[in-house]
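Long-time lurker. I teach an intro course on protein structure, and each term I like to show students one example going from raw sequence to a predicted 3D structure in token notation. This year I'd like something fresh instead of my usual example. Would anyone be willing to generate the tokens for the chain below so I can use it in lecture? Attribution to the forum is fine with me.
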Amino acid sequence: MDAINVRPVKNKLKMWSIAVLCVALFTASLLSPAVGQIAHATGEQKPFPQQVNYPGITKPDHITQTQMNADVAAYYNSWKTSYLKNNLSSLPGGYYVKGEITGSADGYVPLGSSEGQGYGMVITALMAGYDTNAKTIYDGLFKTARAYKSVQNANLMGWVVADAAGAQGHFDSATDGDIDIAYSLILAHYQWGSAGTINYLAEAQNMITNGLKVSNVTTNNRLNLGDWDGKSVLNTRPSDWMLSHLRAFYDVTGDQTWLNVINNLYSVYSSFSASYSPNTGLISDFVVSNPPQPAPQNYLDEFPETNEYNYNAARVPLRIVMDYALYGDTRGKTIADKIATWIKGKTGGNPNNVKDGYKLDGTVTGSATGPAGVFVSPFISAGVASSSNQTWINSGWDFMKSHKTGYYDDSFTLLNMLFISGNWWKPVAGGTPDAQAPTAPTNLTAAAVSSSQINLNWTASTDNVGVTGYDVYRGAALVGSSTTTSYSDMGLSTSTAYSYTVKAKDAAGNASAASNAVSATTLASSGNLALGKTYNASTTWSTAYTADKAFDGSTTTRWSASSGSLNNQWISVDFGANTAFNQVVLKEISFPRVTSYKLQSSNDGTTYTDIAGTSGTTIGANKTINFTSVNARYLRLYMNTASNVPNIDEMEVYGTSAAADTTAPTAPTSLTATAASSSQINLSWTASTDNVGVTGYDVYRGATLAGSSTTTSYSDTGLTASTAYSYSIKAKDAAANVSGASNTASATTLAAGGNLALGKTYNASTTWSASYPAANAFDGDTSNTSRWSASSGSLNNQWISVDFGSAITYNQVVIKEITFQRVTSYKLQSSSDGTTYTDIAGTSGTSIGASKTISFSPVTSRYLRLYINTASAVPTISEIEVYNQ
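-- Reply from a regular --
Happy to contribute to a lecture. Here you go:
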């Protein structure tokens, strides 16, 4: 069976063609120099080989890195000879990747596709420096991508390359090709800079924002199939889920959309796998509907295997594991580990036993006489997320380096080899710290939605690198953070006015100026009257999406109508007795689909009457409907029409309750207090319970209310140095019932003068890469990307040190091993000359953990060193702070 890759066909509604793996070509003479004889072209900033060591990633260990580089170079030589062409008479200077297709090309003779163009542009940017002609080739590939623009969106590429002027601007786009092309432009920017003939960065930003975001990101944060496809569809192809590409899009645009898409695609994958592939982790070629499910066989009149793990989905493991390798998202590791464990067991650990097709439960459906590279190589990439797969990785490398069958197999095998060998580098700037703050958020609005909750929304900030989140201030107090452009402030007091501002922040810790200030007053109400009642619905998708999910006080659950039920759907609540109400809050967060609705009341649950002034069209994330008070036993939300199966996350009802909630929550327990600096103490506790629901916690510093939290933690800031503080916590519910106080916990802030290690000089025994230097352990940043890591294979007798510049006195060190807790024995040492070190009495230990505070008799020295005797894996330290109390 040849490799199958789905593409849209022009002017045929929901019809597709099949891009088929071209026949194997005989390898011509090599065009590039041997890897040991590289003559770097002028201007490469990241010339091949980069041979990066990704944290937590295992490389083949049966050969040297030099040999791996040589294997990649040899494979590239073969690939380039076979598939890279520049013989277009209709576009002189235009390069393309040769690949045959089947299906309608509208009378043109097809030579290649946008998919191949994307592969070629990524490969060429990564091989620059080895191939001294790489920039010329890349620019030629870009020329073709731009000339063969999509007929729907000129910022994207039409999916067919044909040697005819009429083919330029004739075809629709395909999502995967355009994502790779846009990503390759970011690689090109970091490889050659953007000051030349082509402004690679500007082209990337335009294609990302005006092309992909406009045409391919759906309203439900999935990726559709091309610019011919709808913006509210649920059909999506998992092989397009190039998560590390999307993170690079966020890095160069600062657009939160891409992080939202990433998070949603992980959610879709998790939901899909839990239902259909809990033991294999596999996903089908196409995914449809919500909750997500496999597309049916012959989806969109395609081949039968669209509901299986086949020639499209075969690419998924590489797309997933790269997000873990390059950006540290452990959700990617979890998926990759499950797939790798399954395929090793299925094949007995032999890559030659991989088949070209599987059902989602792992049953073999493929019929290939020999394994296809596009199946084997991503399975090997999945394995690199765990060192327990070393033998599998070694065998896989030997398979890949000599396996060549055709354009599709060979292109994707080469991409996997670049990744596994460490020659696919993260497209980020290096060397210059980011000191530029984001712009201030704008258009902040505040809306009271209940007696204890105010919802905030604002327009996103921009940043030269990327906005990572927003801090929300109630008055002068920081009350929470958000990675989106909205926030719900809960646990507030009834009929009380609150004022808010928001600040944006980036990965370097730069904070923007404050947004405009807004105020809102919480409603006067006795709480959500719909909680704890009886519910009904017209239809239900499944037992996981029943009517009660729309009335449970949580927006992480929802009601969904049954498959195919779009219009005249409803959900209702039975209060148990006539109840007065005058406000309803509707939340259609997950999938905004309702296009017309109304509220209705009833006394018998059979005959309903429309409530005046409560009809509307769209609902959206939060719709508050106020009306003249109604007294009824039943309330119904009636949805006249919807663009797809309607889903309601939450429906809240407010007014005058016949029976008020008078039960207070239980008292919080296990309160702890930890000094984090000279002005901050961090608190954490065990959650309370309540008959209706806990809405938040009040934090007391002594007898004074210091702040509130909707989680089980709180940071008390602005404190005085070297001062003891005592705390207790009380829980509260929506009816303003307050629990008894928790246990009391005390802590003493650190001494004034702050962290003595900031802004000094640092050193280390070894370093993983330029991304993880010793300075990262002393920069005040505990984020995942800011840490020191020893070099690959260096477990024991590793160290990092700080040079204060002159002798200082200190008596406390805080060590934070947050990301990877691996140290099994350590000690602190001091030195006057940076050469001879002396152990500091009472500072040795075994494990460190998330935060270890070590106090000791004052020491005066110029140098301080953390010496790691042993570790279970390569040690990595997030932060070391030094204080003199």
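Some talking points for your students: Residues 224 and 236 are 5 Å apart (CA to CA). Residues 1-42, 656-660 have pLDDT under 50 and may be disordered.
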